[in-house]
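Title: Prediction job returns without error message
Component: structure pipeline
Severity: low
Priority: P3
Assignee: unassigned

Description:
Job completed but the reporter wants confirmation the result is attached to the right record. Sequence as submitted:
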Amino acid sequence: MTGATDPFSASIIPFEVPEQMRAFAEKGVSQARENYAKFKDAAETHNGTVEAVFTTASKGASEYTAKLVEFMKANSSAQLDFAQQLLGAKSPSDAFALWTGHARTQLETFQAQAKELAELTQRIANETAEPIKASASKLYTPPAA
């Protein structure tokens, strides 16, 4: 049924888009392309930032773990040395003197180790946050006063 009254027949009325509409549409398309390019650049930059953060965090975690193992070895050696000295004590007073000396030394060692771990943790946190700060400073510039 393709009669003259069929609005979908082959005889299409020619329609011309006004110049203002065409310019408006072209402007919208060009803005969309520009925004897409900006979004793509930002996404690529953020991917690099995320990779840098994870790389730095992983390196820091490895360094922290190595420091813990180092402390564990030192503390274990100190305990074994103390046990050997204690077994060689000639009297209870010698054993007590060894015990108090060892306890004082270990307390000082633990305090120094805790301080070193805290400093290491702070440094790792700062290094890990640095790529984020750098990326944010590129994207968000404060308005001029």
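Comment from assignee: result matches the submitted record. The two ends are 72 Å apart (CA to CA).
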